[in-house]
Amino acid sequence: MVTTPLLPSDYLDLVSPLRAGADLRGRIEAVHPETADAATIVIRPGRGWRGHTAGQYVRIGVDVDGVRLWRAYSLTSPTNRQDGRVTITVKAIPDGKVSNHLVRRAKPGTLVQLDQAAGDFVLPQATPAKVLYLTAGSGITPVMGMLRDTEFDDVVMVHCAPQPQDVIFRDELHDLVADKKLRLTEVHTDTDGMLDIARLGELVPDWAERETWACGPAGLLDAAEEHWSRHGVQERLHTERFRPGIVVAGDGGEVTFSATGKTVDADGATPLLDIGEQAGVLMPSGCRMGICFGCVTPLKAGAVRDLRTGELTEAEPGVLIQTCVSAAAGPCDIER
Amino acid sequence: MTAIDPTAHLTAEQIEELGRELDAIRDEVIAGRGEKDAAYIRKVIAAQRKLELVSRGVLLFSMFPPAWLIGTAGLSVAKIMDNMEIGHNILHGQWDWMRDPKIHSTTWEWDHVSPADQWKHSHNELHHTYTNVVGKDNDLGYGIMRVDEDQKWHPFHLGQPLWNFINACFFEYGIAAYDLELGKNLNKRRRKNPEFRARARAVGRKIRKQVLKDYVIHPLLSGPSFLPTLAATFTANLVRNIWSHSVIMCGHFPEGVQVFERRSIEDETRGQWYLRQMMGSANISGSKAMHFMTGNLSHQIEHHLFPDLPSNRYAEVAVKVRALFEKYELEYVTGPLPKQVFSAWRKVFRLSLPNKKREVGTPDREQELVAA
What we know:
The complex is a heterodimer. By secondary structure, chain A is α/β, with parallel strands linked by helices. Chain A is built from eight helices and 17 strands.
């Protein structure tokens, strides 16, 4: 009543954006280069941060050229870090707006929007006796979070990167190897060629006995899933995908964003998230690859197609869709 | 409508070419929107909030005349900033591209008795679409005045200088009533319409909150300064109302601004729409501070051409738009605030009386068309 039409928090945000009770935000405190195209971002999260489990990711909203963009990145800091900071490690991908911004242009002092940590690419309560990490590129980031957090009895890592200097955390990994805390095989794909998963046994003879966490490009994960299934040990394989899967497109349709009062034509291949953003609709978003559920929105009418599977979802009361991996399948109404 | 069509010398192709040139200006700004613009609006919002906070703080001691004066001045400026440079422009969607849910046309609410969503409908959808079309754009005299010879005279208009003055003093209530289309909706049948009643209730709730804040809670918080604070907030609201009314009058009412017939917008092309906005709006010249305090509505012509471009860009756009006016030999109506306010008021007085005979006929125009 005192501050209508604003809320008292609108004024408190001016002086204390990280206080308890505020929307969850963080402040970038440092940016440490890791490789030529990767960097670790040190973030002090607001008081509302509830902590994370090693291997989880965090959704982060960054203003790039004045536009708020949300992405999900793996947390790489140990869960018991004394100063309460967390880190994410980001690899700049070609044309990646957020990743390039964070790696090359992010400045200490900048506020970012955060969500609570999420994801089930984590270790079970009891640490398995024998562990295998199969990673490629930036797929090493959630695994690094686990390695920093947990003492393993027997852990093997197979990591693929184009060249030695592209291996993120290389020095730290080699220190672990020197301390006999880790057995590491680096596959340098520029010289060694791509990892042939069928020959994994040559690198790790007891791979099938190991509880395995794999993270990397879709090709590696698809091959791993097939390999583990063929040997009947698929329950030992845990994967985390950083890119959306295969695109299945159909016919589009007219999309109505009923809360905003906008109607636009959409093709059958473009995610509704992109369609909405282009139309100026305030769309929630997150990983943009169908894993984090930061973008779920009620489907009021019509039907949408899941771009990963081709599966159709029709409107019913209570039906929520992931707009980042759904495209129009005929006319539809999205409640935004 | 003036007797002579000031755009008669343009061919259809020229008008479409003009449209393309304006599109290019717009595209250039959109391509260049970025971090600096975002920093600008965040800075303005933060400054407004701090100014309001400090002013209301000072008013707690408003029984001391210097505190009253400083607090009232500060609060007046804060309210003007809220309505003009911040509220009006955010509600136009000028900052939606930032995708910040806290600075977005669908979530913003302003220090004004008309709820944001109702204002957006009557202003963005009706006024900006049907700009200066007689019978379609209710902003032409707000339904209580006659501001063009083409609008039919009625004895009610004899009082319009007074209506306009009252409207200026209580402008935010005038706008709320206008957004509700009270004039049309108060007859017996429409009054019972559930949709209208829901909107009226929403306005009632907004008024209650605003009044409670300005005239009950803050005066009570001031304790012994109750009455001076009450007077201060009333004054600040009055100053804001008269200021925004004056600025907005300058947008479409000064002499030289054209109005259009309903028929003229049938099958209107993009170029013709642009041309109508150019001829139907007027600017205010002045310093940077003047542009800021008018919410950049001093660049009314540019705002009407590109209602959703960020307001901080209108000044640079104005240079290019003005060059186009010259290129196409069109009149760019502009002048200092006192001159434009005077011009608009003179029209309000003049048109309170029926048209003089010589202004009704259109032989001049026909001659012009033949000549063209």
